[in-house]
Design a protein that fits this description.
Its EC number is 2.1.1.-. Keywords: Cytoplasm, Methyltransferase, S-adenosyl-L-methionine, Transferase. Pfam families: Bin3. Its main location: cytoplasm. The chain is α/β, with parallel strands linked by helices. It has a single domain (38-261), classed as 3-Layer(aba) Sandwich (Rossmann fold). The chain is built from 10 helices and 7 strands. It has helices at residues 14-20, 33-36, 39-43, 48-52, 71-87, 106-114, 132-145, 160-182, 193-205, 223-233; strands at residues 59-65, 96-103, 122-126, 151-157, 183-189, 237-245, 251-257. The chain has a 7-stranded mixed beta sheet with strand order 3-2-1-4-5-7-6, sandwiched between helices. Strand 2, helix 6 (106-114) and strand 3 form a beta-alpha-beta unit. The protein is globular. The structure holds S-adenosylmethionine. The site of S-adenosylmethionine has 23 residues, from strand 2 and helix 8.
Length: 263
C-alpha cells in the first residue's frame, strides 16, 4: 500500500472519504485509520531495544494517548514482547507490560476493547485527555493499581495536530506539559504543518467552520521542531533519539525525563 502523506486521502472512494474527512472526524477519530497508516510502518523504524532502553525491565506501565481503535497499541505491545523473547534483555517472564489506551471517541474504544487479544495486559478507556478532571478520574486509579505515580512510557502518535487544531497554541502546550508530566519517557510523532493545511482546506471545502484556531495559530511551520524545543525547555525532557521519518514525513521522537528534573 502506498504510504499517504496526510491523514485525508483524496484518491479514496466517496464513502470512505466522507468517513475520513476532518469534518466527519474532527478529532482525527477516523474509523479506517489503520487501513492507511498500518502500525508496522512506524514500528519498523523503532528498534524495540532502543525504546526499552529508556525504561527499566520488570513491570512497565505504558499509556497510548489517542489510541484510536487500538491497532498501534497492540502492535507496540507485541513489538516489545518480541524483544523480550528474542533478545533476552530480561529473563523470561520478567518483563511485564501493562498498557492503557485512551481515546476521546467512545465508539473507537468499544472497537478496541472488543478486538483486544491481550485483555490481561492491555485495557482501553474513553477519555478526553484535555479534560483535567476526567484525566485524574481515569489515570490515577489505573496507576494506583500498579503502585505508580507516573507511566514508564507514553505513546503520543499523530495526536498533536488534532489537539492543536481543536485547542489552539495554548492547548497544544498544555497537552505537552500534561503528557510529559504523566510519564518518564515519551514517544511522540507530531504531524507536520502541511497536514494542518490539508485538514483545514478540506474542512473549508465541506463548508464547515470548525478548527476556529487554525488561522490564529502562531506555532506553525516546523511544528515538530517547536514541539521538541518546548519539551526540552519547558517540560524538562531530553531528546534521546529521533528514529527518522515515516512515509508520512512524520518524525518519531523519543524523549525521557531530564535527569535534572528527577526527584
Ligand atoms: C490520527 S489518530 C492517531 C491514532 C493513533 N495514535 C496512531 O497514530 O496510531 C488521532 C487520535 O487521537 C484521538 N484524540 C484526538 N483528540 C483527543 C483527545 N482530546 N483526547 C483523547 N484522544 C484524542 C482521536 O480520537 C484519534 O483516534
Amino acid at each position: 500500500m502506498a504510504a499517504p502523506m496526510c491523514e485525508v486521502k483524496p484518491e479514496r472512494g466517496r464513502a470512505e472519504n466522507e468517513q475520513c474527512e476532518p469534518g466527519a472526524a474532527p478529532y482525527g477519530n477516523f474509523v479506517n485509520y489503520y487501513r492507511f497508516n498500518p502500525p508496522g510502518e512506524r514500528l519498523r523504524l523503532i528498534p524495540p531495544a532502543d525504546l526499552a532502553a529508556v525504561f527499566p525491565g520488570g513491570r512497565t506501565v505504558a499509556l497510548d494517548v489517542g489510541c484510536n481503535c487500538g491497532d498501534f497499541s497492540i502492535a507496540m505491545y507485541k513489538h516489545l514482547c518480541d524483544l523480550k523473547e528474542n533478545l533476552k534483555w530480561v529473563t523470561p517472564g520478567e518483563m511485564d507490560l501493562k498498557l492503557l489506551g485512551c481515546d476521546i471517541d467512545a465508539d473507537l474504544i468499544q472497537r478496541a476493547t472488543e478486538s483486544n487479544s491481550f485483555p490481561e495486559s492491555i485495557s482501553y478507556v474513553t477519555l478526553d485527555v484535555m479534560d483535567l478532571a476526567s484525566r485524574a478520574a481515569v489515570l490515577k486509579p489505573y496507576l494506583d493499581k500498579f503502585d505508580r505515580t507516573a507511566f514508564d512510557i507514553c505513546f503520543c502518535m499523530s495526536v498533536t495536530m488534532w489537539i492543536h487544531l481543536n485547542h489552539g497554541d495554548q492547548g497544544l502546550l498544555d497537552f505537552l506539559l500534561c503528557v510529559s508530566g504523566l510519564c518518564k519517557a515519551l514517544l511522540i510523532e507530531p504531524q507536520p504543518w502541511k497536514c494542518y493545511r490539508s485538514a483545514a482546506r478540506r474542512l473549508r471545502k465541506l463548508g464547515q467552520s470548525k478548527f476556529d484556531h487554525f488561522k490564529s495559530l502562531s506555532i506553525k511551520g516546523d511544528v515538530a521542531q517547536k514541539i521538541q524545543q518546548f519539551l526540552i525547555t519547558d517540560c524538562k525532557m531530553e531528546l534521546v533519539r529521533c528514529f527518522g521519518s515515516t512515509g508520512w514525513d512524520r518524525s518519531l521522537l523519543l524523549f525521557k525525563k531530564s535527569s535534572l528534573s528527577q526527584d
